[in-house]
């Protein structure tokens, strides 16, 4: 069993039925959903905390994926110094467990606001900040990864199942309970904040050499300015490990955070590069006919 704070996903599937790629797509979708749930949960504690899943092990019999949840903070001074990562890790485990239980209820049995309040109380119990209370989670923000998790359930076939181990607790997911939470949220009033991650290849127009400003990119014909928050890659870049030349591109995961007013009009959007997968080198120039 994985250590506390880690996740084990076990997919019991019909080995001879269809393409094995479907099962890996299910696992990838579950991981993306958990990443989104964690982002929503962490907003209640401290927006400077980020989490990343690292693949620890894969077994095939029934597909078993073990993930290590790595936490980091851009502002450790704002947190209590007494092993805050352990406390936040426990909070994320309990929060995801509460979400899985909530999704297995009948639609409307409990409002999503009841779930966000329960999660807020879990945040209070962490006591990782010098604050008497913690911010509530936006229901629409939390609904996004929950919707994704429910849509993944719809890809399971008869006789297949899903078990998720969070910390020391094993939970058998009801894959037949596949209702979509966002369809049961009361009409939102006021501004809404939505988040979406996309994998892109961005051509570098101007790198940030000092680590204090935006990178300038081009995506197709559109220009894009965004900071890179992947600290590991940035450290390697500023250490000279990833030299770039004009025309080079980066294969990245970009996070789009959008704010809409009560009429659904986009009023603000921020983009950040949360993961750099690698560099795509510029194609070499064609030799000139006049070259000797």
Strand content: 25-35%
Number of domains: 2
Strands, count: 10
Low-pLDDT parts are: 1-5, 288-292
Number of helical segments?
Answer: 5
For the structure shown, list the relevant keywords.
OB fold (Dihydrolipoamide Acetyltransferase, E2P); 2 domains; 5-stranded antiparallel beta sheet; 5 helices; 28% helix
Describe the structure.
The protein has 292 residues and is of the alpha+beta class. The chain has two domains: 7-184, no CATH class; 192-280, OB fold (Dihydrolipoamide Acetyltransferase, E2P). The chain is 28% helix and 31% strand. The chain has five helices and ten strands. The strands form two sheets. Strands 2-3-1-4-5 form a five-stranded antiparallel β-sheet, covered by helices on one side. A five-stranded antiparallel β-sheet has the order 8-7-6-9-10. The longest helix has 23 residues, at 21-43. The N and C termini lie far apart (66 Å). The model is unreliable at 1-5 and 288-292 (pLDDT under 50).
């Amino acid at each position: 069993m994985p250590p506390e704070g880690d996740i084990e996903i076990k997919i019991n599937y019909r080995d001879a039925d269809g393409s094995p790629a479907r099962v890996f797509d299910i696992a990838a979708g579950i991981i993306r959903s958990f990443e989104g749930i964690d982002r929503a949960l962490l907003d209640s504690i401290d927006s400077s905390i980020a989490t990343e899943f690292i693949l620890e092990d894969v077994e095939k019999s029934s597909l078993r994926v073990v993930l290590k949840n790595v936490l980091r903070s851009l502002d450790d001074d704002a947190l209590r110094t007494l092993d805050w990562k352990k406390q936040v890790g426990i909070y994320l485990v309990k929060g995801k467990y509460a979400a899985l239980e909530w999704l297995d209820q009948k639609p409307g049995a409990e409002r999503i606001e009841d779930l966000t309040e329960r999660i807020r109380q879990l945040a209070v119990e962490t006591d990782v900040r010098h604050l008497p209370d913690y911010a509530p989670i936006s229901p629409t923000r939390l609904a996004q990864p929950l919707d994704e998790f429910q849509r993944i359930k719809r890809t399971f076939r008869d006789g297949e199942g899903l078990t998720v181990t969070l910390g020391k607790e094993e939970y058998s997911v009801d894959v037949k309970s596949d209702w979509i939470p966002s369809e049961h949220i009361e009409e939102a009033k006021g501004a809404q904040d939505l988040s979406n991650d996309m994998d892109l290849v961005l051509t570098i127009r101007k790198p940030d050499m000092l680590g204090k400003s935006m990178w300038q990119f081009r995506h197709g014909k559109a220009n894009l300015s965004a900071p890179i928050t992947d600290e590991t890659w940035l450290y390697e870049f500023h250490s000279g490990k990833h030299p770039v030349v004009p025309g080079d591109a980066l294969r990245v995961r970009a996070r789009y955070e959008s704010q809409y007013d009560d009429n659904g009009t986009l009023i603000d959007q921020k983009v950040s590069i949360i993961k750099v997968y690698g560099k795509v080198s510029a194609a070499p120039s064609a030799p000139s006919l006049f070259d000797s």
